[in-house]
Amino acid sequence: MSEEDDYGLSPSKEIVEIDPPAVDYKPPRPKNDQPKIALIGTGGISEFHLKAYLACGYEVAAIASRTRSKAEAKRDEFYPEAEVYDDYHAILERDDIEVVDVTPHPLDRLPIIREAIEAGKHVLSQKPFVLDLADGEKLVRLAEEKGVKLAVNQNGRWAPHFAYLRQAVTAGVIGRVTSLDFNLQWDQTWIKGTSEFESIHHLILFDFAVHWFDITTCIMAGQEPTRVMASAIRYDEQVYTPPALASAIIEYPGAQVRMSFNAHTTLGEEDVTTVVGTKGTLRSRGPGLNEQPEMEVYLEEGQCRVPLESCWFDAGFQGTMGELLCAIEEDREPNNSAKSNLKSLELCFAALASADSGQPVEVGSVRTVSS
């Protein structure tokens, strides 16, 4: 037996280039005239919403903010014809507005979403959807009773690399998924001195990784998670307060998801996602989550590299609203429905509890965000 055989190494195979699989990962667009949209809340994230809607040609007819000058600034920059309000109730009274995009923080959002649904509006909620699953379940039931669509702005679903991965897996390109690995090193030291972010103990596993728990739910659809083991570590040399190092392992019968985060990487940033299935492997790699230039595809018949168009901060926000508008047009549940997002929050809440306790946590056993 040769030395190579002794170590179990396989002989190298000839690389066969194949045509890219047919995977449609672009953000969805409605076919007909779109309903009028209102934006409630003009915090920093609202800029990405309005940029995306303008690029898609969607009509934002009203903008509301408790600070009227902020709403006026956003109107002047993006939608000069939009009406401005400092009280969102005036928007809910308008019969011509069918869709409301609600962007304030979770606790502030709850009453706005509830009142919007009761007023018969379709709603796009900012993420994280809720801090208590019971609140989310009540809103889902209310939306069903009122016959309106309730979606969540989990914009990572339409980041080009994540959209490609979930669409390819759904189409069976690589068979049943057996492992999913997220490995990220990025520089988030810009939050130093910002009370909004420095006060979030679970900054990485909750405020940031909620996107990754959501993508996990999409890619692992059809397989039920059993438990989560997570860790969050702070070290002395950090320049901000919350733990910069975090990890999580999600167990499934016959599969595993692994997440590794370092949010204090000031040199050599990299973001790699690898999905291994029973019939192939998909991998995306780039210097950051907004820069993932191509998808590597490895199948039994050969391999290829697929150039990816657009980026997370463009396609992501176009996708969340586009999917909601398509769901309204086609009278179906949106892919990013609040109901489906509750599964993602179950994973996230379990990870937070595990990081606090140092013990594995059963998925579904934790109903609220641990403080």
| Number of domain units | 2
The number of helical segments is: 12
CATH superfamily descriptor of the largest domain: Dihydrodipicolinate Reductase, domain 2
Overall residue-averaged pLDDT value: 95
Largest sheet: 9 strands, mixed
Give the N-to-C terminal Cα separation.
Answer: 58 Å
Helix content: 25-40%
Low-confidence stretches: none
The spatial strand order of the largest sheet comes to 14-13-12-11-7-10-9-8-15
Give the percentage of residues in beta strands. 15-25%
CATH topology of the largest domain: Dihydrodipicolinate Reductase, domain 2
SSE string = HEHEHEHEHEHEHEHHHEEEEEEEHHE
The general outline is: globular
Give the helix/strand class: alpha/beta
Report the count of strand segments: 15
Q: What is the CATH architecture term of the largest domain?
A: 2-Layer Sandwich
Write down the CATH class of the largest domain: Alpha Beta
Rg over CA atoms: 22 Å
